[in-house]
Task: inverse folding
């Protein structure tokens, strides 16, 4: 078996008595787009900074093509990076910025000129060579930063929330650019963001960080369909949580009841055994079905009162209050018959396929 | 805007008069000296009976005046170079360093700005007496460096704090050695701060008189000291000429600083 391309093994970083990250293990394939997703302070940026060499890990190792990077100083790691802040060298023109890493590497003038031209083409900024960074928009500056970071063909490109300073529309535009550039260059990208939509849009796989550890690694659909804990479920996509009582647990499935409702069998369950105790039932708003009448015995687990109806173009959001006091949101496609004539204060009945729900215990 | 000048009515004119008087109060003595330096009266009569350049001729003909000017210039240049270099290193420590007592150290570096200069002068004089630095160029440079450094540290830490550290990190990841990254990226980016540090350091030394009087010897005098000692012996319009030259150099440097600042902004 060939050596994995990039391996992060048992990485740990302590600042005094505070542990920023611990037990981080990730294997990245060549050409993969891997995103570290998590709220601020979850350790995702610390992990990236250790990869860049700006921080030394307390324990653990990083292997690139089987060789440890830890003792290599930042400037010799040959890694590209795009930062959260605008980091173009203010006194140099766009062309000189992109040429900087090549000049440092003592490339010849002709080779540098050709490469600068090629990189400007890659980020679609032909003709901007002589501009100064201050004369460019934030989006353009980040594209130049991307060109500069890729000019020396680094095996790995790190991106630390590069779009967080941009407005939403521009952000989406540059996300497309990043996708295209990833496909064209086949560079391996490690991307840090706190924006789940951005992570889902860009990544091959996502590592969800929380409180300094990785909760789960997987493709977007995997994380969405099979979150391993409540945090991942709430961080990837929208979710409703309902308190339920666990009646029995067997083979990763639970039988549970909500309030005084009927027993629902066969819900995938995660966490330790809490038979007879309470747990959180997670439902996806678009997987909930909505009915105006309690059709049949036990077909619907929940009755609720409509508190708000929001029209969002292709979707309609219905917020409903369960008897337990929990607010649930239901997403219906525009034109769905159940939404017709629905108004605030109506009683509705919510149902779900046990397979699409998850129970998180403990 | 809270206070719109155009809407102040009568106050507008009162403010204009106050501003004019303040400016006159500050500038008139200098203009007065400059006018006297071109006057023909040996007794500094104002208004001058007629105009002449003879005092400037006398200034440039007297090797003692020229030597004093040269000494001032020489010391100011050495102070400038050292002040910017030390200020740069100290600023990196104060801005980037993580250690206990950082803020206290920063305050300590600025104390020469508020400490009475004469106290510093007496202390340095007593100390230099022991190690034999009074009346030497080295003593002069050290003394002026003490009062110039706070300006240097203030301008450079300011510039460095406004500089995004990630830019330097980006240069390092691009493959530049951390020192190379500082020289090729950080220094050009904070050049306005370095320039202000240089100008203020030069001027601090150039027109400093209290420390200079203590440090001077009969053979080593800066221009302000020469003006001071000459003034005590006899009253000659050459002093006015020397003072005017001193002021011209200062104004020229201030103008240069303003121009460079404007150029850096656009």
Result:
């Amino acid at each position: 078996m060939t050596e994995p391309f990039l391996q992060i093994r048992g990485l740990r970083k302590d600042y005094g008595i505070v542990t920023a990250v611990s037990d981080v293990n990730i294997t990245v394939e060549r050409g993969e787009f891997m995103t570290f997703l998590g709220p601020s302070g979850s350790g995702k940026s610390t992990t990236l900074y250790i990869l860049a060499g700006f921080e030394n890990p307390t324990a653990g190792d990083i292997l690139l093509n089987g060789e440890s990077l830890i003792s290599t100083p930042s400037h010799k790691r040959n890694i590209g990076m795009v930062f959260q802040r605008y980091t173009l060298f203010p006194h140099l023109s766009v062309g000189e910025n992109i040429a900087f890493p090549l000049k440092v590497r003592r490339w010849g003038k002709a080779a540098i000129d050709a490469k600068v031209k090629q990189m400007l083409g890659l980020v679609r900024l032909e003709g901007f060579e002589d501009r100064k960074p201050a004369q460019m928009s934030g989006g353009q500056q980040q594209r130049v930063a991307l060109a500069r970071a890729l000019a020396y063909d680094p095996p790995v490109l790190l991106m630390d929330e590069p779009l967080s300073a941009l407005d939403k529309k521009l952000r989406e535009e540059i996300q497309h650019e990043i996708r295209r550039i990833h496909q064209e260059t086949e560079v391996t990208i490690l991307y840090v963001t706190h924006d789940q939509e951005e992570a889902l849009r860009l990544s091959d796989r996502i590592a969800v960080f929380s409180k300094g550890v990785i909760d789960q690694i997987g493709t977007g659909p995997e994380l969405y369909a099979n979150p391993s804990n409540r945090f991942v479920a709430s961080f990837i996509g929208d979710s409703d949580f309902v308190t339920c009582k666990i009646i029995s647990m067997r083979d990763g499935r639970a039988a549970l009841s909500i309030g005084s409702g009927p027993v629902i069998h066969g819900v995938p369950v995660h966490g330790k055994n809490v038979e007879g105790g309470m747990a959180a039932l997670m439902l996806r708003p678009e997987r909930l079905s909505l009915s105006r009448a309690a059709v049949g015995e036990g077909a619907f687990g929940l009755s609720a009162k409509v508190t708000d109806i929001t029209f969002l173009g292709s979707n309609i959001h219905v917020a409903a209050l369960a008897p337990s006091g929990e607010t649930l949101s239901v997403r219906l496609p525009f034109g769905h018959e159940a939404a017709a004539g629905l108004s605030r204060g109506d009683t509705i009945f919510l149902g779900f396929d046990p397979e699409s729900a998850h129970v998180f215990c403990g | 805007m809270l206070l719109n000048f155009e809407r102040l009515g009568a106050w507008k004119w009162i403010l204009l008069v106050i501003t004019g008087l303040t400016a006159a109060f500050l500038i008139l003595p200098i203009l007065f000296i400059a006018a006297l330096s071109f006057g023909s009266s040996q007794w500094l009569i104002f208004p001058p009976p007629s105009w002449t350049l003879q005092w400037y001729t006398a200034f440039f003909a007297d090797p003692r005046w020229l030597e004093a000017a040269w000494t001032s210039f020489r010391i100011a240049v050495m102070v400038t170079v050292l002040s910017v270099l030390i200020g740069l290193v100290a600023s990196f420590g104060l801005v980037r360093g993580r250690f206990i007592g950082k803020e206290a150290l920063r305050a300590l570096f600025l104390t020469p700005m508020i400490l009475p200069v004469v106290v510093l002068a007496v202390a340095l004089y007593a100390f230099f007496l022991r190690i034999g630095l009074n009346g030497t160029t080295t003593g002069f440079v050290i003394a002026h460096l003490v009062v110039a450094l706070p300006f240097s540290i203030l301008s450079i830490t300011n510039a460095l704090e406004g500089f995004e550290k990630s830019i330097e990190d980006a240069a390092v990841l691009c493959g530049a050695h951390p020192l190379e990254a500082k020289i090729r990226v950080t220094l050009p980016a904070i050049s306005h701060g370095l320039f202000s540090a240089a100008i203020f350091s030069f001027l601090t030394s150039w027109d400093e008189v209290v420390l200079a009087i203590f440090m001077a010897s009969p053979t080593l005098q800066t221009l302000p000291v020469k003006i001071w000692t000459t003034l005590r012996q006899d009253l000659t319009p050459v002093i006015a000429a020397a003072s005017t030259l001193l002021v011209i150099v200062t104004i020229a440097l201030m103008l240069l600083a303003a121009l460079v600042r404007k150029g850096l902004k656009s």
